[in-house]
Amino acid sequence: GAEVVKQVESPLLSGLVYPGMQALDEQYLGVDFQFGGVDQRKIFTFAELYLPRLGYAKRAHLMNAMVPGLAGGKMSSSDPNSKIDFLDAPEVVRKKIKAAFCEEGNIAENGILSFVEAVLIPISQLRLENIKQKGSILEAASGGDLEPFASDDAPEGTVFSVVRDEKFGGSLHYSSYDDLKNDFAEKKLHPKDLKTAVADAINKLLDPIRKAFTDDEEAQRIEKLAYPDPNAKEKKQKKVSSLPALYCNFEG
Fold this sequence. Notes:
This protein is mostly helical. About 45% of the residues lie in helices and about 5% in strands. It has helices at about 15-30, 40-50, 90-100, 110-130, 175-185, 190-215, 215-225, 245-250; strands at about 35, 60-65, 160, 170-175. It has a two-stranded parallel ribbon. A two-stranded antiparallel sheet has the order 3-4. Helix 1 crosses helix 2 and helix 3 packs antiparallel against helix 6. The protein is globular.
């Protein structure tokens, strides 16, 4: 409990119960494997060790590196501005990216750079490989394209382009993340230009997902059940007083 729950001077019993309940998630969700960040490693090893001793199935556990949130520091599901959701509208994506922490020349705890490294460039590389293999690796779905995040005039091998006006030096094309990171660290790439390129790439990535959701009424119904609007006002039913009837009956 001390390893996964923030400790206070007077710890609550919930701090001891929480790890066990989180480990049991995999049983009651009926999953074959769990996917999470490396910060879940201790919970995963706890589940792997103890759940089979209780007669539950042993699951596989997959982990990925942690990506800093858009505000810097750890990404949080409770802070909508620290992350991009699959169903965020294009203007919402741009607003979140615009407000993200991305100090000029600072490559530490930079959520924008980390997203480029962990998500956009790997996807772009996979799409380039798919083109070389003539579409044998990936298949377009829901009307989405599988082009890399490079501009039309980008040189061969480009995995990420930052489109700029000629008066600002023209567009920048990168064949690796290290080249992009070095340019940012040396202030050759301005945060505003990087943010614009990242927002464009994310929206390009999310367009087919948003379209598939919009066309699927069942998915929309499930989403409302899973994530009810916290600002929605509950409809109050009009109460009908029974006193007049009781009074009449009594008098009668």
